[in-house]
Amino acid sequence: MKVVGFNGSPRKKGNTACSLNTVFTELENVGIETEMIQVGKEKVQGCKACYACDKKQNQVCAMGDDPVNEWIQKMKSADGIILGSPVYWGGVAGTMKSFLDRAFFVSSVNGGLFRHKVGACVVAVRRSGGVPTVDSLNHYINGSEMLMPSSNYWNVVHGTSPGEMEQDGEGKQTMTVLGQNMAWLMKTLDYAKEQFPAPGPVAKIKTNFIR
Q1: What pLDDT was estimated at residue 68?
Q2: Helices marked H in 30-67 — which ranges?
Q3: Is the pLDDT of residue 90 over 80?
């Protein structure tokens, strides 16, 4: 089994990366492979609402001049996905959100590429805005029929300079517990999938309020 984690911070060794690595440690302890992908340093444009991915049904975003399509395929092939972001102005970092908007839309209109994968998020913040950012990231997970492990608090760590999250004892414990619960959920699902087959996808009903 494998988990791919996305670091939405431009800092490769910042507090978002440290949070992901704390979760990774617990996953690796039980033999789950991990990979971190650096999103924050890339130039990722937001969705253009061209709907080409819906029309062509090819699991590809029409904007192919950045790594988003490569990342989509990594998410599709993984068993678990972790979304990590620093807090910018009380919300998800811009590059990360541009990536997520495109990746999850491609997944949604191409039959649900991320259905029933285990998904979680982690957030690093200096002072406030952590919980709203967790909520925003969870929208992608909850709206994609993914399965979400919890922790013993909201998945937020505090710190400004790289590595300061190590001093946030409660935050670091939250990440550790998240990793343990994610590993347990993944192992449980893998054990039970043959005895209890997952329900199949259903055709999406769309109700527009303005016609």
Answers
A1: 98
A2: 52-56
A3: yes
Question: Is the pTM above the cut of 0.90?
Answer: yes
Cβ-count burial 63-78 (b if 16+ within 10 Å, e if not): beebbbbebbebbbeb
* CB-CB contact of 5 with 36 (8 Å): yes
Q: Is 147 exposed, middle or buried (CB count within 10 Å of its CB: 0-12, 13-18, 19+)?
A: middle
Q: Are 163 and 18 in contact (CB under 8 A)?
A: yes
pLDDT beyond 90 at 210? no
Averaged pLDDT of the chain: 97
**Domains, the chain, ordered by start:** 2-192 (3.40.50.360)
- Which residues make beta-bridge pairs with 121? 83
What type of residue is 188? T
Q: How many helices (H) and strands (E) does the chain have?
A: 6, 6
